[in-house]
Amino acid sequence: MFPVMLQLAGRRCLVVGGGGVAYRKIQGLLAENARVTVVAPEVVPGVAELAREGRISLERRSYADGEAVTYALVFAATDDRSVNRRVFDDASGAGVWVNVADDPELCTFHVPAVIRRGALHLALASGGTAPFAVRRLRRLLQRWIGPEWGEWMEAAARFRERVRGLGVSSVCREALFDRYFEETVDGETLHARVPAGPEEDRIVAREAGEDRAYCNGEPVVRPGPVAGSPGLVSLVGAGPGNPGLLTLRGYRRLMAADAVVYDRLAAPALPCDLPQGVELRCVGKTAGRHPVPQEEINSMLIRLSRQGKRVVRLKGGDPFVFGRGGEEAEALAAAGCPFEVVPGITSGIAGPAWAGIPVTHRREAVRVTLLTAHECEKDRTQVRWDLLAQDPSSTLVAYMGVKALPRIVGKLLEAGMDPETPAAMVERGTTGAQRSVVSTLSGLVEEALRAGIRPPALIVVGPTVRHAERLDWAGRCPLVGRRILVTRGTRWLEPLERAGAEVVEVALPLTPAAHVVLEALPLSDVVVASREEVEALDVVRGGEGWGPEVTAWCIGGGPWQRARELGWDRVERAESQVGSDELVEELAAAHARHA
Ligand code: SAH
User: Fold this and answer.
1) In this structure, is residue 251 part of a structural domain?
2) Contact yes or no for 226/246 (Cβ under 8 A)
3) Fewer CB atoms < 10 Å away: N or C end of the chain?
């Protein structure tokens, strides 16, 4: 017996027989995405249900001579040995692998008993000689190889990627893998444990330390937390909220962080695959809670740094644009804590861009002013309204301006700005919740009021705003305004994103960061392709981001059925073979109906 693992996705497999044994084989094949044909005059209800759901093709008749030869893999599980024998003869004669249930002589392969822990498969087989021994042994081993191995395998895979990215010699690489295994797997009990970020860093630092000369580019190997020496604080810009608009460097810093201190505005851009053990601290305003005062944030950053941790201070947009990033940098510098700045895409540029407004345009706008609307409260005098109002070839972008809108408009008009100057407001730019109004300076207050624009929003004033109508590329996308949850590794992310949706991609099981992201803004749709996904996502249903108006799009009958069983509100079903174009079309049609 020569053990192999077969890749069955898309392969044609035949099951002859429709009883309980056949049903279990069919389920196993479907779990691997095989294309299953079942030939049987009578079938148990489970098999009939699979046929109704379109997951198998069922032919209710007896086996016809010779038909096994066109399949990749054949199972026979009828109670008639002569039929089983014919299937076996046909298949084996044509070189097709065949297995007759409970009849080792009529098998060219056996199916092992399997223990699965994520990507780890343990297969047990006795060549058909003593199945009872295999069953008992499997039960014993299941206890030894606990469920934690699934998570450990994922962590090990991430560790492998990390090590490969280090650019160290192959000897060093192997040493790192050995050490990782030895430190996290108990050789006696076979218990596996996912190491926390700092511990993993220590492994890397110790083994890869002497190999640093082999690294190229950025110094990727950093020593783990060392008592007494402060850790690096990265002031990272999260971008305007859409998860795809975080920078690559920002993403890398987040993935390597021990602690992340984030604002509410930055929450939707947190990477959903942020490792479990990362300390997550929200310092922004959340429902019913006041934001943490700036001095406390400063001292929190200093404290975390002094614990030797690598800290990411994640802020909406760019950290140095109205984000008080400058003050935090000052405090860190004064405390002697090392810091760096990872700039982000500021909302004042990205928000208008998403609404079709270029903030500069040749011969129209040659200057951009970023203004905080707070400055026009209580007659602060730092803003030169006279200059802004008399500068027709420029764009004015005001942050934090929802409440102050009437005052700003009043000041500009008072200082002589043309009331017909094009003007707009953009709320929650780049996210699935983006809304905008386009008007003139004199009409903006009323229009914004009518549309009910709420913070966070920007005011944009200047000649280029008039392009919004023609360049409203995002507004013309069929899925604009949708915030859609998909799971990692599916093929939906890109097509949905291209169709204008904000797509949140999560790995399962959900990480604490994924929970933060999912609750940051309301979802509109969820796409699920398996029962397991339905079950894993059920925990967030009914939370802040997942209200009753969310539509769940189930690919295939299995997830659809599971979602209904669990009482999901709006459940739509797509064929299991649905292509991305069709899915986008269906979602767009539903979107149009609701709009
Ligand atoms: N550092 C941030 C700005 C922080 S001040 C940046 O560079 O973007 C907070 C203000 O930013 C909000 O009141 C709002 O005016 C603006 N803002 C942030 N994200 C926004 C978004 N997605 N859409 C519109 N305005 C946004």
Assistant:
1) yes
2) no
3) C
On whether residue 125 sits in a domain, the answer given is no
E strand intervals along 131-181: none
Pocket test for ligand 1, best of 246, 264, 320, 322 (most atoms within 8 A of CB): 322
Q: Cα separation of 347 and 427, whole Å?
A: 10
How many beta carbons lie within 10 A of that of residue 394, not counting itself? Answer: 20
- Ligand 1 close to Cβ of residue 284 (< 6 A): no
Which of 447, 473, 499 is at the close of a domain? 473
- Residue 358 CA to ligand 1 centre (angstroms): 17
Q: How many domains does the chain have?
A: 5
Give a yes or no: residue 398 inside a domain: yes
Task: Looking at the structure, tell me whether residues 434 and 457 fall in a common domain.
Answer: yes
Please report the sign of the dihedral spanned by the C-alpha atoms of residue 14, residue 19, residue 21, residue 26. Answer: positive
Residue 5 neighbours by CB under 8 Å, 6+ apart: 121, 123
Identify the domain containing residue 155 by its residue range. Answer: 148-215
Task: Give all strands of the β-sheet with 279-282 in edge-to-edge order.
Answer: 279-282, 259-262, 311-315, 233-237, 339-342
Q: Which atom of ligand 1 is nearest to the CA of 344?
A: 7
CATH number of the structural domain spanning residue 242: 3.40.1010.10
Q: Which residues contact 339 (CB under 8 A, 6 or more apart)?
A: 232, 233, 234, 235, 305, 329, 332, 333
**With a 6 A CB cut-off, is 316 part of the ligand 1 pocket?**
yes
Write out the catalytic residue numbers: 263, 285
Residue whose CA lies nearest to ligand 1 atom number 25: 457
Q: pLDDT digit of tens for each residue in the chain (595 aa)?
A: 889 999 999 999 999 999 999 999 999 999 999 999 999 999 999 999 999 999 999 999 999 999 999 999 999 999 999 999 999 999 999 999 999 998 989 999 998 999 999 899 999 998 878 888 998 899 889 888 988 899 999 999 999 999 988 888 887 888 889 889 888 888 777 888 898 888 888 888 776 654 443 333 333 443 444 556 789 999 999 999 999 999 999 999 999 999 999 999 999 999 998 888 889 999 986 545 677 899 999 999 999 999 899 999 999 999 999 989 999 999 999 999 999 999 999 999 999 999 999 999 999 999 999 999 876 666 667 888 999 999 999 999 999 989 999 999 999 999 999 999 999 999 999 998 999 999 999 999 999 999 999 999 999 999 999 999 999 999 999 999 999 999 987 789 999 999 999 999 998 889 899 999 999 999 999 999 999 999 999 999 988 899 999 999 999 999 999 999 999 999 999 888 888 889 999 999 988 887 7
Q: Compute the distance from residue 401 Cα to the ligand 1 centre, in Å.
A: 10
Answer for the pair 349, 359: CB distance below 8 angstroms, yes or no.
Answer: yes
Ligand 1 mutation pick, 428, 458, 461, 521, max ligand atoms within 8 A of CB: 458
Question: What is the Cα–Cα distance from 492 to 445, expressed in whole angstroms?
Answer: 40
For residue 468, the domain's CATH number is 3.30.950.10
| Cβ of 313 less than 6 Å from ligand 1 | no
Residue minimizing CA distance to atom 9 of ligand 1:
400
Does the beta carbon of 347 sit less than 6 angstroms from any atom of ligand 1?
yes
